[in-house]
Every structure is written in C-alpha cells, then in structure tokens.
C-alpha cells in the first residue's frame, strides 16, 4: 500500500485518481447513478477494474437497486442485497464467498458514501421529536369536521379506533402468526411489481440496514388477506366517498396496508388526483410533516409534462430530507408537523404536501376518498393540459415570469391568461426564489419585488381561481391522457355518468366537475344546436351529461341518440362517420338481416363555428361539404367515388397512422371547431355493460349465439369496390419492407390481393416498433416477454394470409366491426307478460320495457340481445380480429362463451394448411390461436394489458406460446377451416 508523509505522520495515498483515471473528475454520486443503470453482470466486471471501482461496485444501496430493477414477483432477502441479487440470478453458490470479503477503504475518501452509510446505520431513538403543531381533536363531530377541517387543514384525531379489532391485533407478532405465508406488495423506487411473504419481510425488517428500507404498501391487501378488512371500518367522518359508485376493478386504488421499519417512510408527495386521505396508526410511531397546497418543500422539484400533463416529482427520501434539509430551515419555513401515536388518525386534506418518517416499526391503514369538499379539485386534476396541474401543486411559482400579471385578474378568461405563456418547453421545472447576497441591490430588489407581487396575488387553493389555468383549447375527449391520473379515460367518463344517474341530489356539483373534466358545457351547447337544426326536443336536466365510457360525446335525448365525433381529430372523425354511413347504405342495398340489429340513422351532418356562431350542414357521407373541402384533408382523386371519406379512404388513413409513433398518433388535444355528428334511433333496454352481473347463464349463452349470428351476417357482406390506384399518393405510399434480408419495393409485392393490401401493410408498420410500443405500455405486460416479442412474430405479416404456391389466399377478407365491447351491445328485457321469444314492436317495448334506464311496468324475467352499436371503427380485414374485443371484453376470457359464439358463427376462418403449401413454419400459421395472438400483439390498443389483467398467472409466463395457448387455445378446436 502506498503512503504519503504529511507533517509528523504517514497517511495512505489517495487511491481515487489512479483507480478512476479520466473518470476522476466525475463526482461519486454521478458514478453511482451510472452504475445503477448497468446490469449486475456488467457491474461485477467493472468491479475488477480497480480497487476504487471495487468499492463503488460493492455498495449495498447499489445492489439493492440492481436487485429490485431486475426482479418481478416475490422477493426473498438473503441477508445482503448482493447475495439476494445473485440468488435471483441463479449464480452458483460457490460465488457467494466473494460477497463476504471485507472491503478495504484505506486511501479512499467519499463524503457522499459516508453520508449514505450514516443514513443506513443511524437509529432514530435518540432523535428528539415533540408532539408538533397539528391540531389535535377527540370525539370530533361530523358537523365540526366539515366546518373546520374538511378540505381545509389537517387534524389529528383520537378515539376513532377504540372499537376496532385491529387496535389490538395489528402488531407485527400477531400479523406474523396470522398472515406469515401471505405475500404483500412492496413499495420501492422501481416500476417492477414486487411482493414478499410477510414472514420473509419481518426477517428483513429485523436485519436490514438500508437508507430507504422496503415498505409494505399494498392496495390489494383486502383481496390477499380478506380477514384484515374485518378488523377495521371507515371512521364516520370519512364515509362519504364518490368513487364508491364504480365497480371495485374500475375504481382507483384507495386503501393501503402500510408496514415499515425504523427509517422507512413516504417521501414528499401530493396524493393522487388531489384526493383527501385518512391514515390510522395501529402500532409504532410516525413523524409527519405537511405543507399547504402550492408550497413546494425544500429539496423537491416538480415536473409537469406539457404534452399530457403527467406530473413527476423529484424528492429525497424521507430520512434524507429530515436529516439534510429540515435542520437548515428557518423557523418560518418549517412544515406543520406532528408525531402520530398508536390509535390516532390523521386527516390530510386535498392538495396538501406531506412526508412521513417511521420512528420505529409501524403498522397502519389508510384510505383516499373524493367527497363533496374536494370533488371539483379531483375533476380539475383529471382535466387535460398541464399548467393547472403545476399551479395546484406548486402555486404561482409554477407560472412563467410573464404570467404573473395575467394571474392578477381572476376574472380573466383562461384563453387570455394562457396566451402569453411559454408553451415550448417539454418539461416545467418549478423555480424557487433563491436568496441573494446583500451587495447586489438590483437583484435583491427584483427578487423582493417578485415576492411582493406573488404575495399580492395571494395564491388561493380555490377552484374558481385554479380553473382559470385550464387550457380551454384542449378537450377531454381528444387529448393525450396523463399517466399520473388515478383512473383511465373510460373509467373517468363512467364515473361521472354513474354519479349523474345514481346521485341525482348532487347534480349541481357533478355538473361543475364534468365541466372541468369533460368540457360538458361546450358539448351541451353543441347538442342543443343540433336539436334546434333537426327540430328535436332539447335535452332535459336528466339528459345534460354525455353517457357511458365511449371516446366521443353521446347523448340520449327522448327517442334519439346524438353522437359527436371528436376522437383523434377532424380527419379521423370524418373517416369514422363516412365509413359508418357507407356501411349503412350497403346494408340497405343488399337487404342484410344485420340491418334489423343496428339502430336506424335519422340524420347526420357537420357542426362548425363560423365567425363565432354555430352552423350546420347536413351530410350523408356522399360528396365533400364546402367547410370540409377548405380543410384540404382529401385528394382530388377521392372526389370520384360515392363516399370520399368511406372505408377505402379510411384504410389509407389508418395506414398512415400506423406508421406514426405513439405521441404522433395521438392528437395534441387542441379543440376543433368542426364536429361531424350522427342522430340515430334510441334502442329500448340497457347495454350489456349495465347488465353483466345480473344476467343468468342462459341469457349470457343466448348473447354469445346472437353475436355469432350477427358476426356471420357482417362477415358475409360484399366488399366495396377496391381501386387502390384511386387513392395512392406515390410520394407517401411507396414504402420498403425487409423480407428475408432483402429490401423489396411495396409496389413489387403484387401477390397480395387488393382487398388485403392495406391490412397487411398496416400490420407491417405496427410490427416495426412493436417492442417500443409494448415497453411504453409497460405493466402488466411482462418485460421478459417484451424482449421475446420480435422472435415470436413472423418476419413478414403477409404469411398471415396463408398464401399457397398458386397465389391463393387461405382466408376470407371481410368487413370487421373492430369494437364489439360490453357497452356496444344492447339488450331488451323480457317480461312475465311478454315471455314469448317472438320480437315485439317498438311501441310494445316502449310501454313495457326499460328505455336506456327508464323503467317500464311488469317483472323482468330475462334479457335478450337486440342491437349492436357504434360502427365508427369499421375496417376491412381478417374476421378473426372481431373475436378479440368480444372474447376479452364481453366474455372476459370465458372459453365456453367463445365456443357458443363459434357454433352459431359457422363460417370458415382460414384454409387448412396442407403439406403441399410452401409456407415457412406452416404448422405455426395453421394455428388459429397463433394468428389471434399476433393480432393482439400488433393491435393499436393495449390489448395485452387486458390479457394480463384477466389471466394474472400469465404474468410469469415463460413464452408467448404459453400465453397463446391459455387465451386462444380453444380456437384450434374450431372446425372453421375450408
């Protein structure tokens, strides 16, 4: 070992320059951050480079990250994180000896590592925490809670849990005895879904020395350990919860079991969707710190993505914040804080920042909720755009410099207040007023002036103030959905509709929330214009809100259904309506029996704004209205066909869209001023989505038979006249594809028939970026399978056609609905006095049935399917594609229902592969299950997310073939070959 003489003693020579070479200039924290991005194998190799790299590469926090970042499923801690990682990587036991070798630190100094080491081994027993300054109450009445605290300020309440069994049974020892073999979810900074058996977790708690220990934070504890739900009840102060109108699987996560050791905790955050929360401690002690809305804690940075409004918060761990930031705060900058004791419940209002540190082993339960006090804030947080989300969390500091003056007048319209903002940055970083040195008087004066201006504005967490920062140029239906929203778009729309129907007493409040999240006021105005133009009755109070979960505003008004097309922008909307109108025309022309099961079209047209006024032109899909012609959305050649925005043009549009990235293919969300619309006859009864849980098994089997019959009618329809040359733009459509390592011009692939050409080309484009698309969607799609997806898919999608040596296609091409889901199937009731199976007249049904929720008389004995709705997603292609939404959404994977459907369908789905066909891997392409699985993978929607949500066991599948067999294996038993 080299040493240097310093004064009167010899000290070891600094190893860092020689050990790191040119990397010497990089701080240790940056090197450690880089190491986390490597694989465990690469880190092990790097540790051999030098003694310094050996030290950095053997740090426990590093191996904790490496282990958790490469693990899915159950975790078993082996005493150290390196041992645990090697165990999960199945490294032979002989290598474990290297894990025990002590590390020599002589000649190596790192303040960064020293601080981290201190956080790993410090104990909190010696830290002094007083009771804090959060107001404490006992036996708080509901009236006093609503008046003084609800959505206003935090409060610590005792006496709410005295009758809970959990008050005495939720200790670490008792839970270990009762639930030792139960696996609970672990919260840690990784996107991976990790769980531990409770017995293993308790062992980990006892021996761990992590700076940010693992923390049980399980929102599914009621499902894995139902007995725990019997041990507590929601306190009377918090029982109003508007999310309870949603089914359990559709409502956002709302309750959590929380168990953690000393030093663990929750870092600074605002609860999802600006909901409020209550948290009851059953065992141990917790230290809470809280700031009011808009007051970003020191050390925390808020990023809001301006494309989708996704909120990302960078924050130190809870322990690091208390050790490194809290002591430096001036008294006036310190948070509101308290120490929570067993049996106490803390209430955290909507929008409040909070951070929690466990002072010892703790057990707690918490729930989030939306009630009358915070409902509008929850709806505001769901709304599209980004600036209002930044303001809700960071106050006026979220605004750009030029926006302070705009914010002075709260009556200023949102359009004007947003007009001068800098909308070019992809990420908004919240800025803080940094202290300045006294000599720089000009800068100090400017900072002081800015602070005074902010103070004069008096940021108020008030909905009338916050909503002015909404971007009114965006609308809910046509905007990229933020991944930070607590529920999806469909669930959000269903939630508001169920509140509207199920809680009529709160309709004024629901309407306010719907105006924030859905632009409900604008859509209501549009619908009134359509009603006026076609002399239809105006919507009543019951009919003011769009219905259901669909991607376009749909209104039920008297005997009519009005649908505005807004999804994915104007061009997509014109193709959706144009194809639908062409399809209805075809049904009448060939007198298909399917027309009896599709709502009749009463009117259709284009609504637009011209010089500030609404105008309407009728449009039956033929020709191009002048208001559309001026938009330059269609080529001159397209004017030669009857339906210029019909199915042929739509296929070109879908092909272009398939070649875009995810961000490109989704509209920016800016509102259009042109909306196509359609008016259809209102069906009698209810959708299958409303009836699913109440139908008998016989009714469900009848539904499967009905769907098979109607798919048969749909797939037997003649195809439209296809003349690809009419639509091809040579500059846009000449594309090249790699086939067997050769680049072949698309124009040379003449073996593909015209009716299949666009279908195959669309699949090819989707295949090009399938891995990145699946990675973008992420959980619950297993990353292991994503890595194998390219090998599973065929090298050329044309092989799906089963082309034989003589060029014949081995399957039929047909019209496909593409979107037969539970809310697009209508059911009619059968009453005791109308139990005959024969079809009754509309007048009879109007008098004796439900009309979309309006109750008739008599006792309902059963329900029968009557109509299929919404043909705006029509396409041409493989009829197997129509089985995907039916099997996954309508049947929820029930193989018996799929079998029943196929029996009534009866059409061939493919030509049987023979030994004479020159199809590479013929046995694979001869499996209907393989073709269906590939279509699921290549689908533009996240179909795989649905599959791994229905069949949760498949999240540990070892191959795509295993997934294929489980989901679609029964297709191979169908004699649907010709």
Describe the structure.
- This protein has 978 residues and is α+β, with helices and mostly antiparallel strands.
- It folds into six domains: 3-121, no CATH class; 136-296 and 315-371, Cupin (Jelly Rolls); 387-470, no CATH class; 489-680, no CATH class; 686-716 and 821-868, no CATH class; 750-819 and 875-973, no CATH class.
- Helix content is 35%, strand content 16%.
- Strands 3-7-6-8-9-18-11-16-5-4 form a ten-stranded mixed β-sheet. The protein has a five-stranded antiparallel β-sheet with strand order 20-21-24-22-23, with helices on both faces.
- Strand 13 (301-305) and strand 14 (311-314) form a beta hairpin.
- The longest helix is centred in the middle third of the chain and has 21 residues, at 570-590.
- The chain is globular.
- Residues 410-456, 662-669, 724-750, 834-856 and 914-921 have low confidence and may be disordered.
The spatial strand order of the largest sheet comes to 3-7-6-8-9-18-11-16-5-4
Quote the CATH topology of the largest domain.
Jelly Rolls
Number of domains: 6
Instruction: Assess the beta-strand content as a share of residues.
Output: 15-25%
* C-alpha end-to-end distance: 81 Å
Q: In angstroms, what is the radius of gyration? A: 31 Å
Helicity range of the residues? 25-40%
The oligomeric status of these chains comes to single chain
**Unreliable residue runs:** 410-456, 662-669, 724-750, 834-856, 914-921
- By CATH reckoning, the class of the largest domain would read Mainly Beta
